[in-house]
Amino acid sequence: MTEEKRPAVLVTGGAGYIGSHAVHALLDSGFPVVVVDNLVTGFRWAVADGATFVEGDIGNAALVGRVIAEHDIGAIMHFAGSVVVPESVSDPLKYYDNNTGRSRALIGAAIDGGVKHFIFSSTAATYGMPDVERVSEETPTVPINPYGRSKLMTEWMLRDAAAAHDINYGALRYFNVAGADPEGRTGQSTAGATHLIKVAVEAATGKRDHVAIFGTDYDTPDGTGVRDYIHVWDLVRAHVLALEKLIAEPEESFTLNCGYGRGFSVLEVLDAVDRATNRTIERRMAPRREGDPGIIVSNNAKILETLPWRPERDDLDTIVGDALAWERKLQERG
Ligand code: UD1
After folding, report:
1. Which atom number of ligand 1 is nearest to the Cα of residue 225?
2. Residue 320, SS3?
3. pLDDT for 4
4. Which of 83, 116, 131, 276 is 20 to 30 A (C-alpha) from 37?
5. Share of the chain above pLDDT 70, in %
6. Residues of the domain holding 315
């Protein structure tokens, strides 16, 4: 794609974990970037220097409309949202507000402002507890928690809006995102993390004294939960390629699983962290966490077919190594 064809991209949640990586990937590919983030869970320092930063809420249609007009925004990558599944069970309306209601406002502002392309952070949680070995995009979406439902509703809004208006979209359903920028520019920084690899590297660096293993009686090879961990850098590279496809084919929209098509158990992840540090994290067996499926692994045939995307960091030790390097950097920063 030639330089002049690269539209300015509005990245919501660009100060957060995945969004801050996406900003680097977009800038590296020559896209001008404007970040809108309310800094509730994100960090101003996580926004790359080359991006324009606007502190504000994506639910504020007037503000988003102004940003779209002032910066001649041609595409939106929408990462802003809440992501903790158990919290979505205890505080569902927060999820329908942050993830569904504000997405509705954002999509409306995009259409009103003439934005042509929209990429949405969706999730494997839209599938619920599928009874298949590998989850494909054809697998029925039966989310089992408000988080998954709040994201699926946004997919529906996009599908309907794209049918009615001059906008196309890519909904990217992430499996388990982990790791950090290989160059150490950003990483997962939110306090009180609940995701396994983040929790494990915090334990490995002395920030926690143990890791609880939520369930050892699943119907999996070693009894612990199996997930398809995808390196955040591969994930954001897929976003850039997805955007390029939306631009090249303005009539097409798509929904793609983002995973590597292979799973690791909780014990395999903890073993990888132990290998990386040459130490042993204390493991404590704990009951299952409510709403956790035993296995969720992607069938990623469609993304491999649709985009010229080839994973580059699809190795558990690489994912863990990058997560650990970032964790050490974060703790030095204080
Ligand atoms: C969930 C969603 C995923 C979503 C992500 C976003 C489901 C099925 N998956 O991932 O779609 O994108 O949240 O936030 O809803 N574990 C432990 N100890 C810990 C932490 C986790 O044993 O301290 C286990 C879990 O039981 C699970 C695995 O590790 O088997 C991964 O858990 P986690 O990292 O929390 O992610 P998911 O719940 O799979």
Report:
1. 30
2. helix
3. 55
4. 116
5. 99
6. 196-228+261-333
Residue 331, classed as helix, strand or coil, is helix
Cβ 270 under 6 angstroms from ligand 1: no
Q: What is the pLDDT of residues 181-235, one digit of tens each?
A: 999 999 999 888 899 999 999 999 999 999 999 999 999 999 999 999 999 999 9
Residue 48 DSSP code: -
Q: In the block, which residue shows the tokens 């249609």?
A: 61
The CATH number of the domain where 157 resides is what?
Answer: 3.40.50.720
Ligand 1 pocket member 44 (CB < 6 A)? no
The pLDDT value recorded for residue 292 is 86
* Residue of 82, 84, 121, 176 to test ligand 1 pocket, by largest number of atoms within 8 Å of CB: 176
Residues 204 and 151 in one domain: no
Q: Among residues 95, 147, 218, 260, which one is catalytic?
A: 147
Q: What are phi and psi of 285, to 5 degrees?
A: -65, 135
By most ligand atoms within 8 Å of CB, the mutation choice from 214, 230, 268 for ligand 1 is 214
Say yes or no: CB of residue 195 within 6 Å of ligand 1.
yes
**96 in catalytic set:** no
The answer on 150 and 57 residing in a single domain is yes
Residues 169 and 113 reside in one and the same domain: yes
In a domain, 184, yes or no: no
Q: What is the pTM of this model?
A: 0.96
Crossing angle of helices 146-164 and 102-112, in 10° steps, is 20
